[in-house]
Amino acid sequence: MSFAALGLNRDLLYALEKQFYTTPYPIQSEAIPLILAGKDVLGIAQTGSGKTASYVLPSLQLLQNKPLAQNRYINTLVLVPTRELAIQVQKVYKSFSDKLEQPIKTLAVYGGASINPQMMDMNKVEVLVATPGRLLELVEKKAVFLSAVDVLVLDEADKMLNLGFKEEMTKVMSLLPIKRQNLLFSATLSADLSSIKDVLLNNPVTVEIEVETDNIDLINQVAYAVEEELKGPLLRCLIKQHQMEQVLVFTSSVHKADMVTDKLNANGIKALAMHSKKSQGAREQALLKFKNGVVQVLVATDLMGRGIDIPFLPYVINYELPRSPKDYIHRIGRTGRAKQAGTAISLITVEEAHHFSVIQKKMKKRVELFTSDEFKLF
Q1: pLDDT single digits (tens) 223-238
Q2: Cβ atoms of 74 and 149 closer than 8 Å
Q3: How far is C-alpha 155 from the chain's CA centre?
Q4: What CATH number does the domain located at 3-208 have?
């Protein structure tokens, strides 16, 4: 199927051609026509599957058919859990909008940065990408009004509904018009997300794209049994032994991310941490330095991992296991992209062994567990 068959107009097809997009991903093939038809959509697809363009393209086309709203009364609102994802989504909007005959102004707003420039930039914005907290601050200052929103998008909806955003989300929803088009996109379908369909979406169409086993098969998964206190030494041995020049390490907490980063640097391995306690500038610098090879290791929490998009990342290491099997797949899916092989390594304690078995069962793939005895960790 081609993009032309999805109902996209000439300007957007031209924009796709200029960016060398030739064939739509499955999530795009199914979601775009539904969105153009005005349906509420719940889209579930793995990371790297083209979810963002699935709503960016049709929402831009819908905007082209509507008169410009009153200034500061935005038409399309995209809510995201992190600053990194807000910036990433806004870049996608801009990359397509700039090719339109009448470009549509988009803006990303988020905490951790001065609010004054964001307030000034709000002039004539039609698409606003926002984290909930900063959005409410802007509403309070009358810098933006939500009563004209026609399209609401929740990107990474599973995280939006599970990470302490409930109070903020309730406030935002109360400011939106009842009649609107709702689009929820997520890498996973949790029980909370399934139940929200009855509240947030109107007769929604669910588009769920199964995890492509070919992608997982491209990832060489390895696990090492290790005592908790020896995880740090093992991590450093693996990085040095395999001469890893670019590796993304996942931890389950901010404290552990900082601790692991400090230990790596103390042992001559250049590393930076990326988590919610870091300033926006520090997070952007960490990601840029990691992408450019200035640092070998980026240590991130799950939430921050949502904003990391590197086409050819060779290594992912689970210093600690995530809570759910789907989050595990989401983590390791950061490597093995674009038909390139990748390696995912997990460090497993005795306490984590059962959980790791559950992950393998859900993934329908066995991961060989090695001992760490071969390494000199003392």
Answers
A1: 999 999 999 999 999 9
A2: yes
A3: 8
A4: 3.40.50.300
